[in-house]
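Title: Comparing notes on inverse folding

I've been comparing how different people in this forum approach sequence design from structure. To keep things fair, I'm posting one structure and asking everyone to reply with a full sequence. Here's the target:
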């Protein structure tokens, strides 16, 4: 999911300092970490916990990059602060991909996946993470409800129409045009 461009005081570094920062740190700084949610990759080698009860936002992204990198018509992303996430083994077992220059390195923003099964884990930005709720252990439909997407973004690049009544933004939500959902029902009211 493309990250909005904002002015930051971020200075790229070639050091490995990022491994001691959230969400990768495994130091005693995480001893009081509340584990509200658990998630793991397909093979189970990568496990993480979330300390926030609900995402800051949740969206369906239809951008071309998400389609290509997820092998799907769109992706479901939930936005959290980096400090809301804690990996069981830090950066161990994770693979990183910086899509702007197509390099396999931890360079922000980047895609994060399991190095073994290659299951997508999250997109890491400079201040936030966009994790993929499909690997979160919800337990029941009621708990899953807090991850329900509020809108669609980059809907102008969609490959399938979604008839769900949610706002559909041509690019980023709140800063682009809304796209009208087409009424595609037959005379009996069934969606075509």
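Reply #1:
Here's my take.
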């Amino acid at each position: 999911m493309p990250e909005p461009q904002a002015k930051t005081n971020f200075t790229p570094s070639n050091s490995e300092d990022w491994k001691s920062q959230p969400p990768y740190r495994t130091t005693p700084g995480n001893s009081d970490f509340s584990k509200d949610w658990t998630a793991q990759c397909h093979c189970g080698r990568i496990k993480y916990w979330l300390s926030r009860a609900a995402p800051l936002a949740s969206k369906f992204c239809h951008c071309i990059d998400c389609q290509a990198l997820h092998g799907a018509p769109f992706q479901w992303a939930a936005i959290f602060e980096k400090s809301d996430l804690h990996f069981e083994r830090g950066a161990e077992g994770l693979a990183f991909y910086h899509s702007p220059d197509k390099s396999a390195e931890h360079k922000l923003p980047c895609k994060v996946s399991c190095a073994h099964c290659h299951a997508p884990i999250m997109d890491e930005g400079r201040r936030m993470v966009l994790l993929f709720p499909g690997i979160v252990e919800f337990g029941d439909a009621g708990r899953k409800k807090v991850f329900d997407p509020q809108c669609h973004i980059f809907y102008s690049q969609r490959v399938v129409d979604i008839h769900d009544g949610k706002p559909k933004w041509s690019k980023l939500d709140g800063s682009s045009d809304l796209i009208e959902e087409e009424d595609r029902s037959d005379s009996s009211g069934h969606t075509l």
